[in-house]
Amino acid sequence: MSRVLVAAASKHGSTQEIAEALGRTLATAGHQVDVRAPSDVVSVRGYDACVLGSGVYAGHWLPDARGLVDRTADELVAMPVWLFSSGPVGEPLKPHDDAVDVGHLQHLSAAREHHLFAGRIDRDRLSFPERALVRALRVECGDFRDWDEVEQWGRSIAVALERSAV
Ligand SMILES: Cc1cc2nc3c(=O)[nH]c(=O)nc-3n(C[C@H](O)[C@H](O)[C@H](O)COP(=O)(O)O)c2cc1C
Q: Which pTM was predicted?
């Protein structure tokens, strides 16, 4: 059994729901899981592994998630870390690219993997400028998250934790 932190930055709640689903999968696999907001995490000392994520906005991770990696990089490099982003929407999903900071964050945290999940845009939750941008760019709104994929990725982390028995 590992003590695992799952922390994801979310502006409109959909990435938070992915973090909670990952937390449930890891807890079901027998791990002790805390799902926390990145801004609440001062240190990751005491955890055996971390799963960190963010919604992607204008090509970047949200500042709270970037801040967590920056703040705790010295601790993260000593444990297994997985990163995930949630962003692409539409059919087909767009954009295809990882957030521009992911390479740097993966380097800082020595993360084993980065996984890109599809996201959700719920027009009713957006701010006025966001709604205007989404309309101008003709972005397809809707919930494109694939919960089977989320569960599968969570299970793959659980298997890796069992293998390394951290
Ligand atoms: C104003 C705005 C800008 C966005 N920019 C990007 C982007 O650059 N790349 C991307 O993959 N997704 C982008 N998205 C999609 C979001 O990442 C997606 O909706 C995600 O699920 C939001 O997560 P959250 O609900 O946790 O905030 C954008 C969404 C909005 C509303």
A: 0.97
